[in-house]
Amino acid sequence: MKVAIVTAGLPRFTQDFITVLNQLKGFDRADLYINLWESDWADNNQTAINKINKILPSHIFLKKLNITKEPDRNLPVDQNLFNKEELKWWYDRRIGQIHCLKLAVDLIDDPYDVVIRIRPDGCLYEDLDVSLLDLSNKEVIFCSTGMGIHQTEPNDQFFIGTYNGIKFLCELYQNFDNYIFEGFPQWTKDVHSWALEYMIGFHFKINGKEIFKGNFDHAIMRAGRSKYTTDKHQHVHIVKDPTE
In CATH, what is the architecture of 3-220? Predict the structure, then answer.
C-alpha cells in the first residue's frame, strides 16, 4: 500500500507530530508532503527540509516541502460592517487553512492508495492501522467524534482518504466565498456559524457526498502549544519545538 502524508499551515511542530507519525501503522513507508506559510521558523526551503528530516521516523520520507508567502486577502463583502476587523481575522484564518492544505496536496506527484492529513501539533489517542480502513466506497474518513456545537460536523484536524477524495475536499478553497453566501446567510453576525468544520460539511452536502466517520480520534496540543499558536489556547503552555 502506497501512503502519502500531508501537513500544512504555520510551523506549529511539537512532540505530537513525531507521535502521530509513529501511531500510523499498516505500511512499510510513507512519503511526506508539507506546505508551510512563511515565518521566521525557516527562511528557505532547504533550511526547513533539514529541520524536518532530523525528527522523522525511519519509515517516513520527506518527499516535498515548500514555504509559501501567505497572500493578502479581502473580505467577500464591501459594506461597512461594525465587526469588519473580527470578520477579517476569522476569514483569513479559515480560508488560509484550507488554502495551505490545498497547496500541500498539490505537491503530490505520485499515485497513492491513501492520503493522510495530519497537523504538526496533533496526534491520535491510539495507534491506527491504516491498512484496515475500507476506502473503496469512502473517499474520505473523518474522526469518530465530530466538531461544532453538536459535534455533528467533520473534524478538519485529521482525516484519511483516497487522493481523489482529499483533492475534492480541498476544492472547498475555490468555492469558499460562494459557500459563505449560499450556506451561511448570517455569517456577518455569527462568526462561529461558518467555522471550517461547517464549511467542509456544507461542501460535502452541496455536492451530494456522504460524511463517513472512522473508529479513531484525534486531539491537538496534547504535548503542549507551539510558540506559533498565538491566536487561541493561551491556557496551554508553550513547549519546545523538536525541530530546533
Answer: Alpha-Beta Complex (3.90)
